[in-house]
Amino acid sequence: MPESHDDPLRSLFREAASAGQSATTPPPVSLIERRGERHRRRRIAGIAAACFLALAGSGAVLSAFLPGDAGPTLPATTPSPSLPVPSPSSAPPAPRSTTTPPFDPTGSMSPTPPTSSTPTRMVSAPPSSTSTSTQAPR
């Protein structure tokens, strides 16, 4: 079959193709770069979110399987043999503690005899509103 050059549909398609070719221009390079950069950022954010969720999920699973309180921690080495405990008769006497007299708001403090060879500290009461002055006992 010979082709007819008078086919109106064919001529219309050729006109549309030539008009489409002349009207199409590639987008500017900056626009292509911006789209690519946006796509790259979204991909990196998605990968980071997936890694975070994977780590958090594995941490949650591990914490569920780990025991709570296993009890006291044992030492890494065995303890050395203990020294013999001295008998109470050979033990040195315990040092006596010195105490300061308690605070007396009335200002009438009585001296206490010292209980050891170290001197005791005398404490004076602050002046009260009823008395003019308060001195420590001598």
Any chance you could write out the topology, listing elements then pairs?
Elements: H1 8-23, H2 29-65
Describe the model:
It is a single chain. It is built from two helices and no strands. The chain is elongated. Helices cover 38% and strands 0% of the residues. It starts with 7 loop residues before the first helix and ends in a 73-residue tail after the last helix. It has helices at 8-23, 29-65. By secondary structure, the protein is mostly helical.
Low-confidence region ranges: none
Could you give the distance between the termini? 142 Å
Q: Helices and strands: which structural class?
A: mainly alpha
Structure annotation, total helices:
2
Topology as H/E string?
Answer: HH
Largest sheet, in brief, is: none
Average predicted local confidence, pLDDT: 76
Helix content: 25-40%
* Rg computed from alpha carbons, rounded to a whole number of angstroms: 49 Å
Q: How would the global form be characterised?
A: elongated
* Proportion of strand residues: under 5%
Number of β-strand runs: 0
